[in-house]
Design goal:
This protein is mainly α. It is 82% helix and 0% strand.
Length: 203
Amino acid sequence: MTARAREVARRRHRPIFWWLDYLAYPAMAGVAFVVLALGVVTWLPALAAAGRALDGWRTNGDTSVLTGTFRAFRRYARVLMPHAVVSTLALALLAIDVIFLSGRSGPVALALFMICLGLVLVLLIYHVALAVVAATRPDESVGEWIRGALWFAFGSVTRGTALLGAIVAAPICSLPIPLGPLLFSATAPVLVGLLVLDRTNPQ
């Protein structure tokens, strides 16, 4: 165990520091994520990079989460950008459909609205899982990340529900914090995913 890891372990035995850590470091990763995601299609590699930095803090005590996210981004952008472009287009189309159908009435419109909304949530769960898997297995290929993300997100009701709960709760629970939804809506679900993955043993 490194000196930083020992310091993290020591702080976790002191509740006030533990809670401060779990607010400060996801917020730092959130700042980096927001900056990197300004490229619109760069949000997916930015999310994986934030996950990588948070995983380094959790496992090795590396507190350079802000700069760590920027350092990790280059590698993830190189391999995830094609996936990010397709995902951005898919989410944009579904968002347009949801907005359009929300102003329509009738059973058919309601059914289509619920289907599109469900697909949006499924894609959000999948992409959080993809960021978690890519963060913890940086040396694997994109194909292995995708297979791992599908297994992680949808291979267990418990895991999928935990990810969905984090996605929905993060922006709501962070409302009392200034800029909270902006900083935590992406990084908090990834952090939850990392914690869930710790307790998961793939078959």
